[in-house]
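Narrative of accomplishments. A recurring question from our advisory board has been how the design workflow behaves on a single, concrete structure rather than in aggregate. To address it, we present the structure tokens for one chain from the evaluation set, followed by the sequence designed for it. No filtering or post-editing was applied between the two.
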């Protein structure tokens, strides 16, 4: 069994997609190990979460987006949970996300210069899953 960390980002919560996302996790047969609503994510936590991206031009927009409202964080486990959840999310840019994926069904690509609001996050490797679980649930 592999564990991964996921976020339902502020646009997902704002748009009432929490139930939809959790339903997909459950129906896929992934196990929900932890689940929490965080009402006021602080900037320093987001900076640590996205430490590899803080130097990017779009980072200030990404931080504003991620602190713009409540988000849901959780841990799921299953066989190949990391790649399974990444496939369920779809491509980062919603314009390239396959229909049927969460991003491909529910997200739109932003205008130039804005953060990509794409509903969900998922760890991209066992190392980042371990780091992100420790960061958010320490
Ligand atoms: P991922 O979420 O699909 O793993 P990452 O490259 O790790 O993609 O980027 C993290 C998040 O940063 C994305 O989900 C998206 O919200 C935002 N983002 C990534 N690239 C861009 C960009 O070029 N412009 C604006 N926002 C971006």
């Amino acid at each position: 069994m592999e564990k991964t960390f996921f976020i339902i980002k502020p646009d997902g919560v704002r748009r009432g997609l929490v139930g939809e996302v959790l339903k997909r996790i459950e129906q896929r047969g992934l196990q929900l190990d932890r689940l929490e609503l965080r009402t006021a994510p602080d900037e320093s936590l987001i900076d640590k979460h996205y430490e590899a991206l803080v130097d990017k031009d779009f980072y200030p927009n990404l931080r504003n987006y991620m602190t713009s409202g409540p988000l849901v964080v959780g841990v799921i486990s299953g066989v190949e949970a990391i790649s399974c959840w990444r496939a369920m999310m779809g491509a980062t840019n919603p314009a390239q996300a396959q229909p049927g994926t969460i991003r491909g069904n529910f997200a739109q690509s932003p205008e130039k210069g804005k953060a990509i609001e794409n509903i969900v996050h998922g760890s991209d490797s066992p190392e980042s899953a371990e780091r992100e679980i420790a960061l958010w649930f320490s």
